[in-house]
Amino acid sequence: MDEGWEQLHPRRRNLIGALIALAVGATFMCCTALYNGTTAIGLANRGLTTDATVVQVDRFQRGTKVTVEFTAQSGDTLSAECTSCSPNLDEGDRVRIRYNPDDLAPGVEDAENHGARRVAVFTLVAAAVLLSAAGFVGWRLSRDRPPV
After folding, report:
1. Which UniProt keywords are present, listed alphabetically (predicted)?
2. What burial class does residue 115 get, using C-beta atoms within 10 Å of its C-beta: 0-12 exposed, 13-18 middle, 19+ buried?
């Protein structure tokens, strides 16, 4: 490693490492918020609402995957993962969903749940917390500067 890095006080090195980790975490959270916000805006602007039937429920140790089948506006029968449907649903249950007819890749969401919007808001709050912590660490670094 660089000699300058080795000469830094261990606490200062820890603060710099924490600052880097917080910045990377905040960047990841901002990207996640951007993706989910874009999905939520797409569903809000172009989304269509319809009734769907739950055709498959996969329960895992850390979550549930709900697949629904519905008739699209074009008349085609489509199947997609419901990203915000309740994990308490069973096969055969009916649920009201919202989908983007132009792009089913991100899945569909429960019409009353607005899952993409909730995730976007949560990740923005997490990014704000991480950025605040990074600001605090930066402030600590500026206070702990050795005299020149």
Report:
1. Membrane, Transmembrane, Transmembrane helix
2. buried
